[in-house]
Amino acid sequence: MMADKKQFPGIPNPFRGIFFAFEGMDGNGKTEQIKRTVAWLRQLTIGRRQPVVAEVKEPGRDRNVGATIYRDLEGRGANFHTDNLSAFQKWYALDSRENMVKNILRRLEVGSIVIADRYRPSLVYGARGPEEIGDLVLINQIIMGEHFIWPDAILIFDVSEETAIERLKKKGRNLDGHEQRAVLERVRENYKFFAMTYANCCLIDGEGPPEQVFEEVRGIIGPIVEKRYRPQV
Predict the structure, then answer these.
(1) Dist. CA 164–CA 182, nearest whole Å
(2) Lowest mean pLDDT among 6-20, 126-140, 163-177
């Protein structure tokens, strides 16, 4: 469930549409949950002029800064977080700003539902510990400015490092710098801190079967959609 938290770094969503972000460390199962959620929402709204359900992703390989981020991650291995933290986080914020301008805002303005595969909570990957998260949020806030729109709900899927690595290996993935055990341990704790600190965050146990996890997802998203689009939905 979403707790009432005092810290709110972004701008509350002022648009007609709804903005959801799916978050958590790599291997947590969020890709499957996004797939299920998008299919469910599209079925729920079939035949309606609004809302349209749209998917976006950060960072984006099809965006200039996003492509640079992927090249850098794939080249640095497990030591990515020991380099220039501030500069690297600026890249992420710049890519996010471009994503907001090109993809997200125009959809929210017309009343669409936007599902983001990662958003600014992923900044926790760059924090060596909870004490650095506030500084990274500030960097993002400065760079994104008026485009730092806060999601209506941030779903953070929590799994153990062992589960995450096992799932990634089953996909045949070569683990990049974000997916090493020591990094995942740190990132998991950072996400837990973020979920306890910032508004609209829901920490979800992602260890169970996908259909079980999805029931919790639907229990969070459903009431928000129903309230916003009633009586159309």
Answers:
(1) 12
(2) 163-177
- The pLDDT score that the predictor gives to residue 6 is 65
Domains recognised in the chain with CATH numbers: 11-229 (3.40.50.300)
DSSP characters over the chain: -----SB--SEE--SSSEEEEEE-STTSSHHHHHHHHHHHHHHHTTT-SSPPEEEEESS-TTSHHHHHHHHHHHHHGGGGGGS-HHHHHHHHHHHHHHHIIIIIHHHHHTT-EEEEES-GGGGGGG-SSGGGHHHHHHHHHHHHGGG-EEPSEEEEEE--HHHHHHHHHHTTPPP-GGGSHHHHHHHHHHHHHHHHHBTTEEEEE-SS-HHHHHHHHHHHHHHHHHHHHTTT-
pLDDT band at residue 171, thresholds of 50, 70 and 90? Answer: confident
| Closest by Cα among 94, 196, 191 to 148 | 94
Rounded CA gap, 199 and 7, in Å? Answer: 6
Prediction pTM value: 0.88
Joined together, the tokens standing for residue 13 give 């969503």
Residues 132-161: tens digit of each pLDDT: 999 999 999 999 999 999 999 999 999 999
Lowest mean pLDDT across 66-70, 116-120, 162-166: 66-70
CA distance 104 to 100: 5
Distances (CA, A) of 126 to 19, 89, 131, 137, 214: 24, 7, 12, 11, 28
